[in-house]
Amino acid sequence: MKRRPLLALALAPAAGLAQAAPDAALAARLKAQADAWDRAIVAKDRAAIEANMADDFRQIDGRGNVETHASFVAGLMSPDLVIDPYTVEDFDVRLYGDTALLSGRTRMTGRYQGQPFKSHYRYIDIYVKRGGAWKIVSVQISRIPD
Length: 146
Fold this sequence. Notes:
Elements: H1 3-15, E1 18-19, H2 24-43, H3 46-51, E2 53-60, E3 66-68, H4 69-77, E4 81-83, E5 88-96, E6 99-112, E7 115-130, E8 133-143
Parallel strand pairs: 2-8
Antiparallel strand pairs: 1-5, 2-3, 4-6, 5-6, 6-7, 7-8
């Protein structure tokens, strides 16, 4: 019985790291940054895509493959890939100090090597504040079956 109060005390500092609802201004700023990145991806604006990314960026795709900053950008820039404008559903921001978790669902369409594709997935983007700027360090997506 004495362990429960000790466990509660041990967990209390960790619980204080989470901010359940980040302030509205920061949440809006992060959403605007994520929306701008999505538009840059559709437009194949390499400079804008890379400006949002940390050098140590990683992506885990829907098949479990790991992409680096360089391979992720190269894939987006490929002339074989055309992504139609898309929207994000169920967008959410969670803030943990200088780390922000942005998540939602996306239904994406486009063409790859001239063939149409569509995908529906849930994602989590991890942003870290470094040198006063928020940069995306990691993306993970999970496909949602039709």
